[in-house]
């Protein structure tokens, strides 16, 4: 094996995506990298290309339509590049025959799958993914239960390795914000993320207790027009707060908010989320839903804090808004844990690549 590994990196390479951030981390590690996007790449003004009608129909039927021809491009790249590692993000569009052909063309290549989602959930996987699992040498997952014998291994996965969530050092940092940005993006209590009914009920519960609450994200329109409309202390933006090149609005929103809430998506069986690490990495205070994995990542009451139900959440919101020095102290300790604990994407990618190469 070469000292400088060759990595064929295949993922969603739109700027907003975690895949694009992971690609930069691999490049910083000094590997020789060739990259393919398995999703159409949009311009910076929009950040993505909306799915076609054919794609939406295919997804309903359990297939991920390969709209950019990444199956054929991957085989051509394997023939030409001869990678040590073929890194595939999620891989719902990869045909089992393509994965088998990679092994046939270049038997020494290690085929890796990486996913942030619960891939045992049929809402997240496709027929291609399920049938192709047996061809991957290793599957990296942020969902610990996916490694259970009755989950991905039962679908054919040879080896499943748990990795924790990570932050992007280029984007998630204690950047300075102006007074105008604090007004534009900030709040006493804030949440950045997509709509879920349980989340909406929790946010409304805090607002009805008299606290100023602000929500950013997709899918909140119905809630804003309905249940949230009559709560004067609740501000629903009905649009995402995303980082873009040269304008890190997501990071600014976290930095401008006194208490950043973190919810676990029940449909995805979350025990940790991207925000679980990104908020502390921004040196901001996080009050998140309790899980054993959360408590392992950041010590409760010292590096972040957690709630067990809505009444506990409101009680802790009341406490921390009355003690801003505690918020700042915990936020600083959370940032230190994220940096010293090796929670960056660079650290995570180094560990996964080393594992894939048997180092």
Give the gist of this structure.
The protein is of the alpha/beta class. It has helices at 18-28, 53-60, 70-81, 96-105, 127-132, 179-185, 197-208, 221-225, 249-255, 274-281, 292-297, 310-322, 324-340, 345-356; strands at 6-11, 32-37, 85-89, 110-115, 138-141, 160-162, 187-192, 213-216, 234-236, 243-244, 247-248, 257-262, 286-289, 305-307. Helix 10 (274-281) links the parallel strand 12 (257-262) and strand 13.
Protein model, in words:
Strands 2-1-3-4-5-6 form a six-stranded parallel β-sheet, with helices on both faces. Strands 9-8-7-12-13-14 form a six-stranded parallel β-sheet, sandwiched between helices. A two-stranded antiparallel sheet has the order 10-11. The longest helix is centred in the C-terminal third of the chain and has 17 residues. The protein is about 35% helix and about 15% strand. The chain is of the alpha/beta class and about 350 residues long. About 40% of the residues are buried. It has 14 helices and 14 strands. The model has no long low-confidence stretch (mean pLDDT about 95). The protein is globular and about 65 Å long. α10 links the parallel β12 and β13.
* Regions with little confidence, pLDDT below 50 for 5+ residues: none
Number of helices: 14
H/E element order: EHEHHEHEHEEHEHEHEEEHEHEHEHHH
Main pleated sheet? 6 strands, parallel
Q: Which overall shape is indicated by the principal axes computed on the Cα atoms?
A: globular
Strand segment count: 14
Assess the beta-strand content as a share of residues.
15-25%
Rg (CA only): 21 Å
| Helical content band | 25-40%
State mean pLDDT (0 to 100 scale). 93
* Spatial strand sequence of the major β-sheet: 2-1-3-4-5-6
């Amino acid at each position: 094996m070469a000292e400088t590994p060759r990595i064929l990196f295949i993922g969603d390479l739109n700027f907003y995506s975690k895949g694009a951030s992971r690609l930069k981390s691999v490049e910083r590690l000094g590997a020789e990298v060739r990259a393919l996007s398995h999703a159409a790449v949009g311009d910076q003004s929009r950040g993505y290309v909306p799915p076609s009608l054919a794609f939406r129909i295919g997804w309903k039927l359990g297939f991920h339509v390969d709209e950019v021809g990444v199956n054929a491009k991957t085989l051509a790249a394997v023939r030409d590049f001869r990678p040590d590692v073929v890194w595939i993000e999620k891989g719902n569009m990869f045909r089992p025959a393509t994965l088998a052909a990679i092994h046939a063309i270049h038997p020494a290549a290690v085929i890796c799958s990486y996913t942030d989602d619960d891939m045992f959930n049929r809402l997240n996987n496709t027929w291609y993914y399920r049938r192709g699992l047996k061809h991957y040498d290793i599957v990296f997952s942020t969902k610990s239960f996916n490694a259970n014998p009755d989950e991905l291994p039962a679908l054919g996965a040879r080896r499943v390795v748990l990795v924790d969530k990570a932050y992007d050092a280029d984007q998630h940092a204690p950047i300075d914000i102006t007074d105008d940005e604090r007004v534009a993006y900030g709040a006493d209590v804030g949440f950045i993320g997509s709509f879920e009914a349980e989340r909406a009920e929790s946010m409304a519960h805090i607002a009805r207790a008299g606290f100023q609450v602000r929500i950013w994200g997709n899918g909140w329109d119905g809630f804003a027009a309905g249940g949230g409309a009559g709560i004067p202390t609740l501000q629903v933006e009905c649009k995402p707060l995303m980082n873009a090149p040269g304008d890190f609005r997501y990071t600014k929103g976290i930095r401008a908010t006194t208490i950043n809430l973190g919810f676990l998506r029940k449909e995805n069986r979350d025990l940790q989320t991207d925000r679980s690490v990104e908020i502390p990495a921004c040196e901001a205070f996080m009050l998140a839903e309790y899980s054993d994995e959360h408590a392992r990542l950041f010590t409760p009451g010292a590096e972040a804090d957690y709630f067990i139900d809505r009444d506990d959440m409101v009680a802790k919101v009341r406490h921390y808004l009355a003690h801003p020095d505690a918020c700042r102290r915990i936020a600083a300790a959370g940032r230190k844990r994220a940096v010293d604990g090796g929670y960056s994407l660079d650290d995570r990618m180094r560990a996964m690549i080393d594992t894939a190469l048997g180092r």
